[in-house]
Amino acid sequence: QINAVFWGAMSPRQLIAQSSLGREDSSKSLLQQEDDGMFLESVVSEKALQEHLQHSAIGTMDDHLVEFSEELRAVAKALRRVADGKARAQEEAGEWKRKYELEKLRNLQLQRKEFHVQEEVAIDETHKRIEFSSHQPENEESTQNQNGNCCTKHGICSQEILRRQISQCDSVTGSNMCPHKASFSLAWGCNGENNRQHKHDVVSFESGNITTVARSRKQITLNWESPPQSVVILTKPNSNSVRVLCAEMIRWLAEQKKLTIFVEPRVKKDLLAENMDLSFLQSWEKDEEVLFLHTKVDLVITLGGDGTVLWASSLFKGPVPPVISFSLGSLGFMTPFQSDSYRDCLEMIMKGPVSITLRHRLQCHVLQDSANDEKLVEEPILVLNELTIDRGMSSFLTNLECYCDNSFVTCVQGDGLILSTTSGSTAYSLAAGGSMVHPQVPGILFTPICPHSLSFRPLILPEYVTIRVQVPFNSRGKAWASFDGKDRKELKPGDALICNMAPWPVPTACEVDSTHDFLRSVREGLHWNLRKTQSLDGPKDT
Hints:
By secondary structure, the chain is an alpha+beta fold.
């Protein structure tokens, strides 16, 4: 009713306008509803699209992860196969390398056995001659021993084996290399005996009882058969006193003894810069000429300390002439002669006979795991004191496998290992806890450096063994080898070092004899067992 009254009260124009407004509102509402529906549909479609994309992305990522993990597994399997193949190849290569080293060592042992057999035959022949000479009349024996030789002309005193080796060397280097070399003979002698006859270890096994009848007492003496003709003088560098003494000694040897004098190139240059009158000095220009120096000189004179003697030993890769060492260094175990009385010493030695000490040397071969055949045939390195294998700058302990004549000895874990001669027993080996050994005792000292075991004590091995020290493949660090304190070489895992006694010792002249000089050096050089003398009855009464 109210609506009817409202509509009845309106005019026709108002009704028309109102109806038109109603239609517009209705159309607007319809459009708004359509827009709202389209918006809802778009919102729903976007959500569905996002959900679809999310589901599809998750599915593709899962598929990619599965494929990637499968590929990783395949790569890991391939890497494992490659690692296994490499390990097998390394083991096989190491095994073949060990077989090669063993074969090489067997060949070396066969050569050494042949040499020992020849030496035993020569000694047996000498025994027979000695027995034959012992049955001769006393006047014949006295005539044979007037010159101080221990036996007959062709016995061990004449050193047939050494002469045979020297003749072979001469045939190789050429007969014109040493026309002025002085000849000499070596004799085995015993102090306090006029005949200076060498006594061997004579063992009796009569009635099944082994008894030592006589023990060996020997001192080697050098007798000149012709006077020396040439000398080489090796000096300590950067020392004014040594340079002055060297110039004075050169003038005396040239004027009084008429000797041919060789010096090092640097020494010749310094001396000629000071005095041109020394132009008669001879030297060498190339390193290859040093290899034949032993064929040109009869004596080696060193002015310095033990380091100068080591330097002189390193110059001679083969035989070494007799060495006369004058003490001009800080500490000298191998320099028994005083420089202020060099004229009397040289007069006595050149006149002869003179006692000498045969200081044995070690020859070392470095075998690299990655080396080719050319590097395997390198010349051996000769050392007079010791071969040292240490860990260098590495923070890991050294890990070294040691073999003696192809038999496993031990595995060294610590700071390193020292393989020393008996001449080097008073050097680095002594500082590491090794024993002091007389230089005439044939042997190889096996001394660890700060071992990682309290029960690892030093050893003294016989001189005829061959020692092989190898860095295992599973070693965490490398090792470094030094030869008489120089020429350091790196040893990587798989590398090995073979060491045995060299056939060329260093003959050094003695002031008295080898035992006297050794004990004096120990007392005066190391102050061995030096202590304050105590009273037997306690302190004196005051």
